[in-house]
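This is your field. Please look over both lines of this record.
***
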Amino acid sequence: MNIAASRTAEAPSARTQVQWSRRWENELQLADHTELADFFRKSYGPTGAFNAQPFEGNRSWAGARPEVRIIGHDARGVAAHVGLLRRFIKIDGIDLLVAELGLYAVRPDLEGLGISHSMRVMYPVLHELGVPFGFGTVRPALEKHFTRLVGRQGLATLMSGVRVRSTQPDVYPNLSPIRVEDVLVVVFPVGRSIGEWPAGTVIDRNGPEL
């Protein structure tokens, strides 16, 4: 389903028409997963082989599997991607329904497109789903990509000093099944104000990261 008109974005070498679509996970066929897996390997590979490893074969997810995806296409194929999964998290023991956002990626030749562009397309979907908050975690290397959402656009709030506990997507011998990270937390107020986000310094996903 088309959820936004095509937008023109500046790429390093050309102006590129990107057409955005919303895809529920049950709508994806094998060919879709194969195309997305290749896109993720090429997008995450430059940051290290380990980051591209989960997407071997036709696997188009790394940890938890999204229920809906926002996918940008252009003449060369997949241009950008954001995934969403509704779940309950705990913040210092308080249960909270969120739409977790993850699997952010932009094709390397389209860095000018930016994560902020993808999230503007995702924002109406958050409202359609009626969730109180969108939630995601941001590693320090990606902080600058969210600056426009937090500052000029005011769609999100970044929080530091929060530890996030998740399960590993797979269980290995001699490796803890739980991962604890000190990351930046990004919160998108949707059905409730940011003032209603529970105070706390520990977030439990009780599942793998999206």
Summary: The chain has a mean pLDDT of 84. The helical segments are 30-44, 49-52, 114-129, 147-150.
